[in-house]
Specification:
By secondary structure, the protein is of the alpha+beta class. It contains eleven helices and 22 strands.
Length: 416
Amino acid sequence: MYQKIWSDYLSGQKEPLTRTLYLGKALRLIREQMRRSRNAVAKEANMGTSLLRHMELGPEARSTWEKIERLAHSLGVPTEKLLERSREEFPYNFFRQTEDNRPHFEYDGISVYPYSPPISSQNDFLLLKVELRPAKSLSPCLHLGAREIACYVLDGPLTFKFGDQTCSFKGNQSFFFDGSVEHGFMNENPEKTVKFFLCLNPPNAMNTKDGLPLRKKGLDLAYALEYVRRKASPLPTMPLPWPMIEKMTGVSFRELMQLQSGKTKIIPWDQLESIAHGTGISLDEMIQVATGKIKGRLEICTALTRGHLNYEDQFGIRIYSAVRPGGGRRRFFIGQIFLKERAKFQSARRRWRYQTNALMCLVVQDGRILVEYGDRKKETLSTGDSVYWDANLEFIIHNLEYQESKFFLFTQPPLF
């Protein structure tokens, strides 16, 4: 079902579906902003006017580093600033949607609304709002290779089936689960529409052929070792290489290959203990995986596991996390942000644990908010509007109301 939604969203898209820098557009805008002629800039940069014109006409541009440095010098900006501006001009790095113009798809009593851009990248995430009308279900669902999908229930009760487990969730509850386990979302209420957010990686950004192999009967240490390689890896579609496992655990490559072959009959407990300590995955979990007693992670977040971060003195904000902040190898953060009246939250990347490939989506829940991004982009958002952006560029969030405003914040990786 995820692939169907993603395919429908991609259909008819005109913008590029992969990440790039709009260097040509940035060159033209900076030059026009400084009121410099193309001929004058090209002459100072010791290059032909026709070449500069060719670079500016397309959003993207390819050139040598020396030419880029000369152009930046001619325009009077640092080379790094020119590259930042190129990133800023890429349309999906600041992707705004209003409540009225948001696309949506209908599937037999199911409404799906995308909040993030249609771009295939491992660093981007797909944020969906799903509405299940009475007695309808989104099932069966499967996302091979996705070790984590996050769900935040806006209006319940939502029934969630995960493998052999069935759980019920009310509004303002959240949970995280392994997408490679078959699952489904059901509305068993005969009168009420259930609404929830889903946060996941784009389906075709995942290598669906790269899922775990079938587990053999009995104790399958080869299966458990493959599980460890994937869970310990920072990238969900790229298992840790064997040489890295060898360095982390002290277990030799030959011994790892012996375990991976599946021919080991005598259990090498010392090797398993070394692998557990080296990768941070408990021996108990490895044994449960090897014996088939664990079939994917389902983490239900309660009031006891959530975090409350108060930054009112520094930024005028309070953060109510849907999960415990800094939760290990988690991919996503979901939280509600309360911004004081007429306050602004300025980016402070030096305070974040992650400073590269960070992406955020803000959805206004109540109030009116102004988002300033980079050098020249400003957008005013009202209730129901959203903006998705590359958080590696500077941004400021203003509350335009004379009362507290509230919005949802989704990030990958977790920034809080």
